[in-house]
Specification:
Elements (H helix, E strand, L loop, with lengths): L7 E4 L3 H12 L7 E4 L3 H11 L2 E2 L2 H7 L2 E4 L3 H11 L8 E4 L6 H5 L8 E5 L9 E7 L5 H11 L3 E5 L5 H9 L1 H18 L4 H22 L3 H8 L5 H11 L2 H23 L1
Parallel strand pairs: 1-2, 1-4, 2-3, 4-5, 5-6, 7-8
Antiparallel strand pairs: 6-7
């Protein structure tokens, strides 16, 4: 099926849509096989100048593209589908990048039998280190999933999950980079409090984060074992961990991810 795909249209090329466009281009996808739509003329010019991609209106994108990647804000999805839904042939693949919206939301507004694949990626796609979770809608086949994987694998890792797990994915990895940035920000501030220059604290923490992530990925060890290897009896690390536990950091993280999951569900309910 991938050989049959001539054009991909990113409809609503905001931040996430732009991630997809830039990733496809970096992977060698021909620019003439890409289209984009944008609500504002200034944004359209920006995309054309930055990537050389042709920016068209929504209905032109539907007419010319075999794959429609919808990346508008969830609250704008219903209006978009009201506009383009009647014009979408049932043999076109629709990829949803709309956080919180189930494939059923699209199926109700598209011709019966239209294949929809739901994807949740994240911003490390900018450096080809994203993780993209991919789920099949009611009419999507293994070929459709493979096509979606082929489009998102240049951005980083891909994983197939049941759609029922997508709200949890949104909470964990979709929003996940923000949690790490917040933690790094706090650790830099702590370094400054302890007397380090800001730039030195920044370099120390960023490289520590990179190294720790690579060890997690490559060692195959459980994070508990890696943490224990740094935690000597009566040492500095265990004193710090005690304070983190006293302040409920673990419980706060659990509650935060539950809140993100619940918000994803609210977004879907409001969009209906």
């Amino acid at each position: 099926m991938a050989d049959q795909v001539r054009t991909v249209a990113v409809i609503g090329a905001g931040k996430i849509g732009e991630l997809m466009l830039s990733g496809l281009l970096r992977s060698g996808w021909p620019v003439e096989r890409l289209l984009a739509t944008a609500r504002r003329p200034a944004r359209a010019r920006e995309l054309t100048e930055r990537y050389g991609v042709r920016v068209v209106d929504n209905l032109t994108a539907v007419a010319e593209a075999e794959v429609l990647a919808v990346s508008v804000k969830p609250q704008d999805a219903a209006a978009l589908l009201d506009e383009i839904g009647p014009k979408v042939p049932a043999d076109k693949l629709v990829i949803s990048l709309c956080a919180g919206l189930p494939t059923a939301f699209f199926n109700r507004r598209l011709p019966e039998g239209t294949p929809v694949v739901r994807v949740m990626t994240n911003t490390p796609a900018l450096v080809d280190k994203a993780v993209s979770a991919i789920s099949a809608g009611a009419y999507a086949t293994g070929e459709h999933l493979a096509l979606a994987e082929g489009m998102f694998s240049p951005l980083g890792a891909t994983v197939r999950v049941p759609e029922s797990q997508q709200d949890a994915v949104t909470a964990l990895s979709g929003s996940g980079p923000a949690y790490f940035y917040l933690l790094v920000e706090a650790m830099i501030d702590a370094g400054i409090l302890l007397g380090l220059p800001r730039q030195v604290a920044h370099e120390l923490i960023v490289q520590t984060a990179i190294g720790s992530a690579v060890m997690l990925r490559d060692s195959g060890e459980h994070p508990v074992k890696l943490r224990e290897a740094v935690t000597s009896p009566a040492g500095t690390t265990i004193s710090a961990i005690r304070e983190l536990e006293n302040h409920g950091v673990r419980a706060a993280m659990l509650a935060a991810l539950e809140a993100a999951r619940d918000r994803a569900r609210e977004i879907a309910a409001q969009a209906e």
